[in-house]
Design a protein that fits this description.
272 residues; alpha+beta; Fructose-1,6-Bisphosphatase, Chain A, domain 1; D-Maltodextrin-Binding Protein, domain 2; 2 domains; five-stranded mixed beta sheet; 7 helices; globular
Length: 272
């Protein structure tokens, strides 16, 4: 691995910088905007706030002050939207779960991942309203400083799983079919509303798996994927290939019943 020159050591603190700014505005009078400025909302969860922008800018400034030569990939504004194959890059979602944030639900997070030559080497997901901080480095993953690992459950009837696709108004039938399939095969189904937080919950064993049939953005996924992998979990696309940016869907689990989760994701992906 290329000399990280202290980068790994500051991933958590940089994520906390962004989370602190976001948390200061949590449950305050925040006016959400529809992304893209669309007059007709086709997806009620597709919102952004000024706090998303402020938190991202704080993270970007913190990184730029330390490592101005590094690439920056973020959800908001005019920044790169894909992870470069060479060099160091920081992948940032300032508020993952903005809809939850503006409604006062605590299930949202600030996620920062450090990537070297296209591969994540460190990640931090900070969920201040839930008092949880997930941190992964190569060979280590913790929640609030304590080591975590994926669950050891093997019986699908005991599984709690998540289905994370966010349907447009015209696609609710396909979404409900996916939920129904999961309810038939697993014990419990949850919708959290923050994929990065969900991946942290899989890494810690609180959830046993998650599936989304859609292509997911790097800021919604890269850090959490690193958490699950370092916690001895499995992450693939819906076809069973190793997940990478641009893959069709994302399936993460403790390894047991992974194929069942993947089959649901594949069915829903091919339907759409």
């Amino acid at each position: 691995m290329t000399n990280t020159n202290g980068r790994i050591d500051c991933v958590e603190s940089i994520a906390e910088d962004g989370a602190e700014i976001a948390f200061e505005g949590f449950r305050s009078d925040v006016d959400p905007e529809t992304k893209g400025g669309a007059e007709r909302v086709v997806n009620a969860g597709d919102v952004v706030t000024e706090l998303d922008r402020s938190a991202q800018e704080a993270v970007r400034t913190a990184i730029g002050n330390r490592y101005p030569e590094d690439s920056f990939v973020g959800e908001e504004g005019d920044v790169s939207k894909s992870v470069p194959e060479d060099g160091f890059a920081w992948v940032v979602d300032p508020i993952d779960g903005t809809y939850n944030f503006v409604r006062g639900f605590p299930m949202w997070s600030t996620a920062v991942a450090l990537v070297s030559d296209g591969d994540p080497i460190a990640a931090a997901t900070v969920a201040p309203a839930m008092k949880s901080t997930y941190v992964a480095e190569t060979g280590s993953v913790t929640r609030n400083g304590r080591s975590i690992t994926v669950s050891d459950r093997t019986d699908p009837e005991t599984f709690a799983v998540a289905y994370t696709v966010v349907p447009d108004l015209g696609e609710r039938a396909a979404y409900s079919d996916g939920v129904a399939e999961m309810l038939r095969r697993f014990g419990e189904v949850r919708r959290i509303g923050s994929l990065q937080l969900v991946l942290g919950l899989v890494a810690s064993g609180a959830l046993d798996g998650v599936v989304t049939p859609a292509v997911v953005s790097p800021w919604d996924s890269v850090g959490g994927v690193h958490l699950v992998r370092e916690a001895d979990g499995v992450v693939t696309d819906v076809y069973g290939e190793q997940w990478a940016e641009g893959s069709t869907g994302l399936v993460a689990s403790n390894g047991a019943a992974h194929d069942e989760l993947r089959a649901i994701g594949r069915e829903m992906a091919e339907r759409n």
